[in-house]
Amino acid sequence: MRPSLVLVSTASLFGAVIAAISCSNSSDPAPPVDQASGLCGTSMSMGEAAQDACVNAHCCTEFTACDGNAGCSACLGGQGKGCESNPLLRAFWRCHEEDHCDTTAGTGGAGGEVGAGGSAGTGGVSIPPDSGADSAPDVETDGNEVKCGDGKRAGDELCDGDDLGGASCESVLGAAAGGTLACGGFCNAFVTEGCFVPGPSCAGTTGTECQGTSCCASLVVLGGAFKMGRSSSGSDAVSWGQLDEQPEHNATITKYRLDEFEVTVKRFRKFVQQYDGTPPAQGAGGHPKIGASGWKSEWDVMLPASKTELAVSLKCDSVFQTWTDAVGANEMRPINCVTWYEAFAFCAWDGGRLPTEAEWEFAAAGGSENRLYPWGSQHPHPALASFGCDSDGAVGCSLNDILNV
């Protein structure tokens, strides 16, 4: 029996017809604020609430000033210039990331440094006596000191640490959202990076079917530089690898989201139920940073012509296929017998895309840790993975060796 694989490229398709799917998404569920760069979006058609969120998250006095490539200092009309190199200025002007601040101006006057309560001199600003280097200025409200970071909402704080005031991904992004909401900025903005909005494949589910959480849960992978491929003598070197895994080479990827779980039969059934042979639209399911990576019309002929034909194509192996025409005992097993084109169409329909080979390998190898397997260098066994014919603890190969997600 061949192990279940995550389908990420044409090469992996032809390497294993019995394959599982995992979708990816490069964008966060809520677009108003780019959490990676700290810059507001460029769309001036954003709703008023989204504009306010953008302004509040980046201490901008006007939304228009926050649009485009404006950083924190530009939003403040230049008042925060120079704060990158001076933590006191950074705290005073509430620039919550160093790289949000403009470095074109000095932080202090000629021949002197900025002191608490002193004058900044030419090219700088004055710092109040109570300003701290690592936090926003304390605020007095009704005699109670308000400190961002003490874990207690007070004053005009929207949140503070784990105290979100009852807010959740669901209340911020909508009823279907899941994941973990966080407090950001200087306790004046919610960070939705840990949230996810399930696609139509999870409609009508309880959100707890896959190990206590949503089967559509997606995780943020921060990306970075790593060694892609397989080395000849490093920690990932093996004698039985494929020739196309070499030579090992440097690769860099940006932040993206990856499904936490393989696509289950239950999720794929939603796709089959609505399938009528209509292919994805031209360009659908593409990587936002890779041109012409979306669906191509010449692939249309590679998809089944009807729902019936799609269901038939999912029965590729009488023993190991997980698909059943009627709902049955396999609903929580990973779907298999799916072609690359069918996987692409599913992910596009479900609001995502297939991960690139580099994205999949980055996640599987632990990024720069360059692991041989996701868990390290230890050879696979049933306690680590659904692998070979040993997963169910019985002798011989059977469908039971393909464990539930």
Overall structural class, as computed from helix and strand content, comes to alpha+beta
Taking the sheet with the most strands, its summary is:
3 strands, antiparallel
Global outline:
globular
Low-pLDDT residue spans = 1-18, 27-143
Number of helices: 10
Order of helices and strands: HEEEHHHHEEHEEEEEEEEHHHH
Number of strands: 13
Cα-to-Cα separation, first versus last residue: 18 Å
- The overall pLDDT average reads 74
Radius of gyration: 26 Å
Beta strand %: 5-15%
Question: Strand arrangement, largest sheet?
Answer: 1-13-10
Approximate helicity band? 10-25%
Walk me through what this model shows.
The chain is globular. The strands form 6 sheets. The chain has a 3-stranded antiparallel beta sheet, with helices on one face. Strands 2-3 form a two-stranded antiparallel ribbon. The protein has helices at residues 10-15, 48-57, 63-66, 72-75, 87-92, 169-173, 265-274, 307-313, 340-349, 357-364, and strands at residues 24-25, 33-34, 39-40, 139-141, 144-146, 178-179, 182-184, 189-191, 195-196, 218-221, 224-228, 249-253, 256-259. It starts with 9 loop residues before the first helix and ends in a 41-residue tail after the last helix. By secondary structure, it is an alpha+beta fold.
